[in-house]
Amino acid sequence: MSVLKKDFLPEQLQNDLAENGVSGTVAVQADQSEDETLFLLDLAMRHGFILGVVGWVDLRGPRLRERLRFFSRFPKLRGFRHVVQAEADDFLLRQDFQRGIGELRPFGFTYDILIYARQLPAAAELVACFPEQRFVIDHIAKPDIRGRELLSWERGIRRVAAHANVHCKLSGMITEADWSNWSAADLKPYLDVTMDAFGADRLMFGSDWPVCLLAGSYRRGKEVVAEYMAAFPDATQQKIFGENATHFYGLAA
Fold first, then answer.
1. Which residue segments constitute the domains of the chain, with CATH numbers given?
2. Could you give the C-alpha distances from 9 to 27, 31, 171, 251, in angstroms and in order?
3. 21, 167, 170, 239: which has the fewest Cβ within 10 Å?
4. What is the DSSP letter of 32?
5. pTM for the whole thing?
6. What is the DSSP letter of 231?
7. Any residues with CB less than 8 A from the CB of 86 and at least 6 apart, and which?
8. Contact call for residues 56 and 36 (beta carbons, < 8 A)
9. 3-state secondary structure of 135
């Protein structure tokens, strides 16, 4: 993990974006704190290519509505996330958490679901309870690509994808594979399932930068998705590489 033990700031990312033909990005939380959310919003204010921020707020807190009202003043704050992968498998189903999810839609906020594959059944129950709330599964729910585990993840991801209010990010896959010995062929079965389950209108590319650096560069992470998508029409590729994310998060052009 030593490659990640330093600061990663917009100045470093800007070069990767330019070199890979990416005009804008969404910054997504890593820390469970409002301080980090405000830090990301400050970066977005100073760097025009940061088109949106997915921050953190205490969805279980007694002052949630007040905090959502506060964050609604920031045009680039588009949604929230919690690192649920670090929580118990039933976390998404807890009453206080679901009460918080129920407060997001009136403010127009999205919710990013960051989980491991084993938590997909709980995710399916969650999204079924809130059919009008916009959700996105991060990192295709982190299947065990290194261990070539496919079937149980496929059952779970298809169950979640059956709900039209759920999108999915084609991201984080190379870090679930063998970091030093992965290939595009390792990812293809997971891309096949995700594409079939969600379709062209509910998938979006995500870089997972800088975490992707554990297993490859920004360029390689994008290339592996681009190479897979090359078999699809240009219109589909445009959706995956920008249009769907713009629509889902409500990003300004």
1. 9-249 (3.20.20.140)
2. 11, 15, 20, 21
3. 21
4. S
5. 0.97
6. T
7. none
8. yes
9. strand
